[in-house]
């Protein structure tokens, strides 16, 4: 006796059984494939939130870079002004030192004349 005959004795038709298994397989496949698709809107919302967060961070980075650029420009201007000020100070110091040396020579000359006058 074959398996088909045994099933028919129990009152089951092989075609009905095959349709039942095919239907069960289809339902199982629909659940396995379709189930995750139900979560797609939630996942898309999460992705949108993450994209918004990244865009916000990018905007913050751009603002920070703009501030840093301005700070670097200001530092460059300060360094240039400092160099110019130092150059002017050195020039003034050199001129002042030259004037002091000239004054010292004149004072020495006056001191020698006084010594000559006193020695006469």
Short description:
It is built from three helices and no strands.
Write the layout of secondary structure elements.
Blueprint: H1 3-9, H2 14-38, H3 40-119
Assembly type of the shown chains?
Answer: single chain
Order of helices and strands: HHH
Question: Would you tell me the overall average pLDDT?
Answer: 88
Give a count of the beta strands, DSSP E runs of length 2 or more: 0
Structural class: mainly alpha
Low-confidence regions: none
Sheet-strand content, in percent, reads: under 5%
Helix content: over 70%
**Count of helical segments?**
3
What is the straight-line distance between the termini?
Answer: 162 Å
The largest sheet is: none
Spatial extent as radius of gyration? 50 Å
Specify the overall morphology. Answer: rod-shaped
Keywords: Membrane, Transmembrane, Transmembrane helix
Task: Record keyword descriptors for this entry.
single chain; mainly alpha; 0% strand; rod-shaped
Describe this structure in words.
The protein is mostly helical and 120 residues long. The protein has 3 helices and no strands.
